[in-house]
Write a structure and sequence with these properties.
It comes from Robertmurraya kyonggiensis. By secondary structure, the protein is an alpha/beta fold. It is built from eight helices and seven strands, in the order H-H-H-E-H-E-H-E-E-H-E-H-H-E-E. The longest helix has 14 residues.
Length: 235
């Protein structure tokens, strides 16, 4: 691989590689053991996602889920009238999601690639939903993330998000953006404050930002108290 920086894409690739070289984490390995006691391995949608339907924000249309993992939220969206594209970097996660969709006889278009390699027309989706992907995005990739979001969403489309609070039970590194590169690590996932989320997504109308409700398993909903839930609308 050439190690020269001639343009913005080269810079992004260099920073991606620096962080990856220092990480021992592998998403395929993470999803390979389905018996692990991981809270979001349950086959139940986020409680906030269900609430957006209950409150009348979501009805039907086209939806994109970023970092879908085993597909629990993508499947729920498809069950409730959406044509769903669901993308994840992990082949193991995508395979698990496809199996779950087949078991329920639900159609979801699962895509095994980086969210930054997606190809779609501008203004394709009524909803973009992200449950736990954003806090694994390095600071230098936030501009790419916002570009993806702005291109994907229709005018007045909704963006739903769940992400780590700072110093949460299972993650939420309370470090600055600069510190990520001093440490060459996201420390398992970045924690965000409400103010930081509003700052990053300042071009979007804030519909709701709150802590996720805790839902005791087993249950038809998923909820843990160490995540933010947020709903934004494209202006």
């Amino acid at each position: 691989m050439k190690e020269s920086i001639h343009n913005y894409d080269d810079l992004l690739e260099m920073l991606d590689t620096l962080l990856l070289e220092n990480s021992q984490f592998n998403w395929n390995n993470f999803y390979a053991n389905r018996e692990k006691q991981i809270p979001f391995f349950v086959n139940a949608p986020d409680e906030n996602l269900v609430s957006y339907f209950d409150q009348g924000f979501f009805h039907s249309g086209r939806a994109l889920e970023l970092g879908c993992g085993p597909g629990r939220n993508a499947i729920y969206l498809a069950e409730n009238g959406f044509s769903v594209d669901a993308v994840d970097l992990s082949e193991e996660g995508i395979s698990w999601g496809r199996e779950r969709a087949i078991e329920k006889n639900i159609q979801v278009n699962f895509i095994n690639k980086s969210i930054f390699d997606l190809e779609h027309e501008k203004g394709t989706y009524d909803i973009v939903y992200d449950s736990g992907c954003f806090h694994h995005i390095a600071p230098h990739r936030r501009m790419s993330y916002l570009e993806l979001l702005n291109k994907a969403l229709k005018p007045n489309g909704y963006f739903g998000l769940t992400c780590f609070i700072p110093n949460g039970e299972l993650g939420g590194a309370n470090i600055s953006d600069w510190e990520v590169y001093r440490l060459r690590s996201l420390q398992g996932g970045l924690g965000y404050t409400e103010e930081k989320l509003k700052e990053i997504f300042h071009d979007y109308e804030v519909i709701e930002i709150r802590k996720m409700k805790e839902i005791e398993p087993p249950n038809q909903l998923f909820g843990v108290p160490f995540l933010w839930t947020a709903l934004f609308r494209k202006k």
